Amino acid sequence: FLLPEPVAARFAQLRIDSVWGGPGNDLTLGEWKVVAVPGAVPDPMPANIADPVRGGHVVWMMPQTSFQEDADAMLADDPGDRLVTYSDAGQRLTWVVGFQDDREALLDHLEWQDPAASDPAIRMRRVDIEVSTSSPIGPWTSLGTWRLERADDGSVAPYPLPDATWARFLRFTSGPARKGTYQLERPAALRVIEHATT
């Protein structure tokens, strides 16, 4: 079925109105394809594969959040809300990020964005980064410590990853909450940028 002209779309729906064999409850569909214009790239690279729109998700977090949506909010590209985790004295915040269908990906770098109403007193100052290519509980290989130093405009420099960094899961572990605060401000947007391949 040829469309009169190409149509930009995120989803395609097939609705079956009738069956050849007459009335009945059975329906068999062999194959259905949606074909793009030759040469079209549906998702330009490099892409932020931690974005929930692309299937990125927080697999687990300690201390836990009340809702999965609350955990995944720090992966969404929305710097509006300020997310805070309350912790015991000296406790660190740890979370693991996975990708669509827990697939393995070749990574390029990481990006961090504070919320619009960020509070310097409870910001994370560093996170340890580890990678696993097998499961969300490890084994883990260290990728180093990301020192979250803010520029005058509040931006954080991207964290470059070594060449050929393959990951199925990324684990982030913060430094402890500052004495007397018992709070840690989570990022408004934590991006994992996949390596552009040709």
Task: List the SSEs and their pairings.
Elements: E1 57-62, H1 68-72, E2 84-86, E3 94-98, E4 105-113, E5 126-132, E6 141-147, E7 159-167, E8 169-174, E9 183-185, E10 189-194
Antiparallel strand pairs: 1-3, 2-9, 3-8, 4-7, 4-10, 5-6, 5-8
Going across the biggest sheet, name each strand in turn: 1-3-8-5-6
Rg, Cα atoms, Å: 21 Å
Q: Beta-strand percentage?
A: 25-35%
- Total helix count? 1
Largest sheet: 5 strands, antiparallel
Distance between the first and last residues' Cα: 31 Å
Low-confidence stretches: none
Task: Please count the beta strands (DSSP E, at least 2 residues each).
Answer: 10
Structural class: mainly beta
Which overall shape is indicated by the principal axes computed on the Cα atoms?
A: elongated
Overview of the molecule:
This protein is mostly beta strands and 198 residues long. Helices cover 3% and strands 31% of the residues. It contains 1 helix and 10 strands, in the order βαβββββββββ. It has one helix at 68-72; strands at 57-62, 84-86, 94-98, 105-113, 126-132, 141-147, 159-167, 169-174, 183-185, 189-194. The protein has a 5-stranded antiparallel sheet with strand order 1-3-8-5-6. A hairpin with an 8-residue loop joins strand 5 and strand 6. The longest helix has 5 residues, at 68-72. The chain starts with 56 loop residues before the first strand and ends with a strand. The model has no long low-confidence stretch (mean pLDDT 86).
